[in-house]
Amino acid sequence: MRDADFFRRWMAAAAAAVEREADRLTELDSPIGDADHGSNLLRGFTAVRAALGAGAPDAEVPDTPGAVLQLAGRTLISTVGGASGPLYGTLLRRTGKELGDAAEVSDEAVREALHTGVGAVAKLGGAAPGDKTMLDALVPGVAALGTSYRAAGDAAEAGALATVPMQARKGRASYLGERSVGHQDPGATSSALLLGALADVADAADAPGGPR
User: Fold this and answer.
1) Is there a domain that residue 188 lies in?
2) If residue 78 lies in a helix (H) or strand (E), which one and from where to where?
3) Which residues constitute the domain of residue 11?
4) What is the CATH number of the domain that holds 104?
5) Residue 211 placed within a domain
6) Could you read off the pLDDT tens digit of each residue along the chain, which spans 212 residues?
């Protein structure tokens, strides 16, 4: 079972991954986007880390998995510009809402909630796998959660790499038409970072003596 601390560690790991890869995300975004994906996500996940750190005396302290993800989602929506804030915010908020008020949730519940969250992202963005968007990493990644968290991270990474030969059909990159071919989608890449961070946290938690 996974408690609120598990999800706080996931968000902290995601923030660290975004910080580490921010320049690369912006480089990927430069030829097919607005060259701000890395900086936008860095600002957002830095704010998420601060919000969940509960540094202020009157700070909101989420004590359930669902509350952690809903707070993270709201923070991203309020701090990240462009499309990334609403999309990532929707993913986390909808996933958190699906988890409900339970103090602990099963891995199956996590998988089902993330599936619902990804569906909300698809509806908001009007995209589908193959459109060269974050869904090309999220959909196979969440599907692989039925195997393991590590399998999910690996599938998401493979999905991000598979966007290179695709022509974008949604988002800013779609305006470039055939010129979008040959570039890895930055949204799919950052989505793979998110699921990779989840896999890292799960691996640590499931190791002998690891944090629960």
Assistant:
1) yes
2) helix 65-79
3) 2-206
4) 1.25.40.340
5) no
6) 999 999 999 999 999 999 999 999 999 988 877 778 999 999 999 999 999 985 444 556 799 999 999 999 999 999 997 788 999 999 999 999 999 999 999 999 999 999 999 999 999 999 999 999 999 999 999 999 999 999 999 999 999 999 999 988 767 666 566 776 888 999 999 999 999 999 999 999 998 876 76
